Amino acid sequence: MAGACCKCLVTLSVFKRSLTVTPRSPGPALRSIFSGGRRDRGMQEGCWAARPILLRTAASYRQPMFLCFSCQDSMRDSLRTCYLYLNQTSRSFAAVIQALDGELRHAVCIFYLVLRALDTVEDDMSIPLEKKVPMLNDFHTYLYQAEWCFKESQEKDRQVLDDFPTISLEFRNLGQEYRDVISDICHRMGVGMAEFLEKKVGSMKEWDQYCHYVAGLVGIGLSQLFSASQLEDPEVGGDTELANSMGLFLQKTNIIRDYLEDTQEGRHFWPQEAWSQFSSHLEDLAQPDKLHSALSCLNLLVTDALRHVPDVIAYLGRLRNQSVFNFCAIPQVMAIATLSACYNNPQVFQGVVKIRKGQAVTLMMQATSMATVQSIIAQYSQEILQKVSLSDPSRDQTLRILTGIQEKSSLSQSSLPSRTHHLSPMYLSAAMLLAALSWQYLSTVAAAQAPGTSDMKGN
Q: Is 327 a catalytic residue?
């Protein structure tokens, strides 16, 4: 966002220009949580989750740029083009990336675009498996092939493949510490995507593995970039377990919420080990006479997702840089609000479970301090607690996990580390701008969405 990119004061006219949002048609889901929130959907209202919508061409697309004009003017043409693609292929996530401090902003932008390109290959059903599998496995090597591009994609966001030489050029312009992280995560994610091309998610263990490939690795990569930038301590990038949980929590939330849309389109992401306890076929859970069984399965999966929340709290509590904290905290509070809305809710099987626009903006505005984030998590965990039924098969496990979350979220303020720039006027302005952008974005998408589509797609 404008104010955060170079620490300069930004006039109201810049904010007004930044608030210009072009209506876009909602598109199908993405696979990586970073380039989109799940395997077929993938970074959710912020840092780690939701699918970018389908794109227009770079030449015809009017989209907002959030970097201040002086910063844009000082950029190389290739880097400016990368930010153009970032704004085209993401939603409000683009604004959060551009609010990051220093050179980390460029590294995360390129990380996003590389994974977006990888995901576009995986998502393109016109590419035969015998060609797609080697591409996914070898994609990380294309980062060092200056001329490599792929002109055959049928996806509407294909410009990230058409013009991959621009993205790979800016990748090679990054510091070695950033290149090593991006290349490694791209390699590991590509291998994981290839593994699950024809493999359905069976066991709960496989659900964790699948979510690790498409979301946990994003969390790990981002954490390593945070540490490489020296904005965060080395332990942030070194603790892969906590970073993995950050991604899994968002990915599972997206998968749970989008049951109806996915099953109607023939995509199965709920693990068979869970739904087979309640139904012979996953699609049958949407039948009215299966409502009791459907809710039992839903609550089981929400409970499984909630077990990652203590790790989320521990992870966020380690962050010291305000821009990184905002980047990470926003999607996490959105996710627990979404889970609260989904828990024991028949609407998951009948239509769309939405977070109200005003609620979403409020969460974005509030997610700027650890104390507030803990309060939000405690609030929504209490809401879920009040919905737990005496007859629910997962009741005991749900209560145990919620108790652990509330204990973790009640850490004393004195135990929390301080962060640089905490609640400075610049960051408050950035948060206000992000909230305004998000409000306009949500209003625009709500007006454009067809019935049955979700109000909480990716960024």
A: yes
Residues of the chain with pLDDT > 70, as a percent, come to 73
381 in helix, strand or coil?
Answer: helix
- Comparing 319 with 58, the larger pLDDT belongs to 319
Average pLDDT over residues 120-142: 93
Helices (H), 124-239: 129-138, 159-162, 164-172, 176-195, 204-211, 217-228, 234-238
Using the predicted structure, report yes or no on whether residue 444 has a pLDDT greater than 50: no
Gap between the Cα atoms of 35 and 44, Å rounded: 10
Q: Which of 105, 257, 318, 419 is catalytic?
A: 257
Per-residue pLDDT band at 7 (split at 50, 70, 90): very low
To which H or E segment does residue 261 belong? helix 259-264
Catalytic residue chosen out of the listed positions 327, 343, 380, 427: 327
Annotated active-site residue in 17, 56, 80, 267? 267
What was the pLDDT predicted at 446?
Answer: 46
H helices, E strands: number in the chain: 23, 0
Whole-structure pTM value? 0.79
**Residue 152 near residue 255, CB atoms below 8 Å:** no
Query: With the C-alpha atoms ordered 113, 366, 2, 323, is the resulting torsion angle positive or negative?
Result: negative
Active site residue 93: no
Strand pairing partners for 420? 321
Catalytic residue among 15, 171, 210, 278: 210
End-to-end CA separation in angstroms for the chain: 15
8 Å CB contact between 454 and 45: no
Q: What average pLDDT does the segment 269-294 reach?
A: 95
- Indicate if 441 belongs to the active site: no
> Tokens 């998502």 appear where?
123
Tokens of 42: 């993938």
Q: Rounded to an integer, what distance in angstroms lies between the CA atom of residue 92 and that of residue 54?
A: 14
Question: What are the tens digits of pLDDT across the range 340-362?
Answer: 999 999 999 998 898 888 898 88
DSSP notation for 24-49: -------SSTTTTSSTTT--BTSSS-
